[in-house]
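Page 42, continued from yesterday. The earlier attempt failed because a stray header line got pasted into the input along with the sequence. Redoing it now with the clean sequence only.
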Amino acid sequence: MNRLKPRSKAAWTFEFLFVLFFGVLNLVPIFWGLITSLKTPNLINTMPPVIFGFTPTMDHYVRVLSSGFFKCIVNTFMYAIISIIAGVVLGYFAAYGFVRREFPLKKLFFFIVVVGIPLSTGSSVLLIPNYMYLLNIKMTNHWYTMPLIYTAYHLPMAIWQLIAGIKGIPSELEEAACIDGANQGYVLGRLLPPLLLPSVAAAALLIFIGAWNDYITASVMVGGNDLKNIQMAIYDYMGYFGQEWGPLTASATCAIIPILLVFTFLGRQLVSGLTAGAVKG
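This time it went through. Structure tokens are written below.
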């Protein structure tokens, strides 16, 4: 036993340094973008770069927020929230059907769900066919265009996530509730949802991140300032003659804050949801 203690300590040290290294690797670009957004244009181009000891300015943030950027934030939140509600509700009923019910072609439909999971990362291959199809039926450039696409893209992952959660709930619990007089509506509406909160949270967070970070699909499907999302607004500061580093980093900093807040306060729910059903007691 004594011989294992030095190895355990060494393993712990290695894991700590490993996490620290990748933590710093991920935080340095965020820190660099933050301090760049607080510099004057002349100071941004100074060589060697000035990291500390300068007077911060909020001019870039004022310019960004006064140029319609807040409208893009609202649009993105609207796209994400509608997509989350639709994706979680549809995914919940579909997952329950896959786990608790038998129906014709069940394996085929489940295979389709599994094949569709990579869509949650966005599919450039399907972008043009989707655009041509939605254009023919006049469903591009509407407020519901992006939520419809995000829901379709992330629904397979939501179903997969919720299937794992439902599998972790014993079917005997539902049977006992039905014996006590509960109907199917009570089971689906009140009994299972509280038990599925980690899986629901994980599915919702993945949909939110996908909708919040999307640029390619939105830049093709919608146009104009009224429907522009936050990523499209960031790219406005990357012009043909170069980048406007001040407004670019300011807008990027504003865009990354919600993602950081989500992972700070709900990261544990995401991990719990991703591991739901992995261990069955």
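Notes: Strands lie at 238-239, 242-243.
Reminder to self: strip header lines before submitting.
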